[in-house]
From TrEMBL:
The gene is ackA. Belongs to the acetokinase family. NCBIfam families: ackA. Its EC number is 2.7.2.1. The keyword Endoplasmic reticulum does not apply. Catalyzes the formation of acetyl phosphate from acetate and ATP. Can also catalyze the reverse reaction. GO terms for molecular function: acetate kinase activity. Transmembrane segments: none annotated. It is an enzyme of class 2 (transferase). It comes from Streptomyces ramulosus. Homodimer. The keyword Signal does not apply. This is Acetate kinase.
Amino acid sequence: MTANATRVLVLNSGSSSLKYQLLDMAQTRRLAVGLVERIGEETSRLVHTPLATGGERRVHEGPMADHDAALKALAAELAADGLGLDSPQLAAIGHRVVHGGLKFTAPTVIDEAVLKEIERLVPVAPLHNPANITGIRTAQALRPDLPQIAVFDTAFHTTMPEHAARYAIDVATADAHRIRRYGFHGTSHAYVSRRTAQLLGKDPSEVNVIVLHLGNGASASAVAGGRCVDTSMGLTPLEGLVMGTRSGDIDPAVTFHLRRVAGMSTDEIDELLNKRSGLVGLCGDNDMREIRRRIDEGDEAAALAFDIYVHRLKKYLGAYTAVLGRVDAVAFTAGVGENAAPVRAAAMAGLEGLGMAVDADRNAVRSNEPRLISPEGSPVAVAVVPTDEELEIAQQTYALVTA
Ligand code: ADP
């Protein structure tokens, strides 16, 4: 690697999408960001924003057959900005990988053995890991000489103690099928818990934080002194909080009931709980803005969906307060957590007994900066801390290749 190789390309590959950011790590600056959607369809679309040149956002529509075509298209966009991926300034490519099982506890340089292990985890992450593997192979073909680093969504949660990670089911069955709680959104929980400590002027090792990552997918985590001790997602991202389209916690007997009584197939139940549940299942909308608008108009289904969403949040706040013993901060993040003041206010209402409260004026401030929303002198600091998973992936990637 040359001394001025300070750029990192971050790739987040979905089954039909490819999100990317090119960052310069010497200045911690984003050079370009973009997204390719509907890969494999006639209507593929690339949206590229050249931040370094300050140019206009560019949109290209037209068929892109596969991830290889998508990567070549984004590489051409970057080259047009003078940021080509053949540049010696590119230090590494960092890949978001959803499931790293128990083996990957830290960012990892990808080789064939690592790819095999990611492949071995496909049964526990059937939607995500195959797409991540495709993204990695495509990037390897483009720049075989460059370090490719995997940053795992599960890694931050591998510090969970067994009593938090195990389900109370037959151990032999669980072990045979690698059934346990892995947790997800780890990159975000790691970034936000550390950033929250910074906001308090403390070292992460000194503080206990509850992180509420509330996006379309949503998860909570309990972080003690910088280490995750519990998180709400489990074997898959279905467990835990009420989400945009996922049910979160549910009695597992509901699934047998749906098979026996409603005659639904396993795939139909999977689709019901992952795609037609949560806020969408309860009221038909998963966008919190729309739900709030409907509530303001007196819509009862929207109001009940909101209350169920908030009730679940409160239960996790209480549970994680007990798990941690002492809570220094609660951090709200992701689309809903960063933007929906009414959700934050409702989740914190009545929790004064736990030392948690929200100041109405502070909560109403809109900003992209981390900020406190609890009243002055509150025992627990309540904060809004915007997440930045791409920056975290880039930092972990760069740290590994420059170590
Ligand atoms: P993803 O899980 O897809 O990464 P995000 O973290 O981007 O999701 O969150 C998307 C969600 O954030 C939307 O579905 C919407 O409910 C919510 N959201 C975004 N902006 C706002 C806003 N201004 N007010 C309330 N909710 C918002």
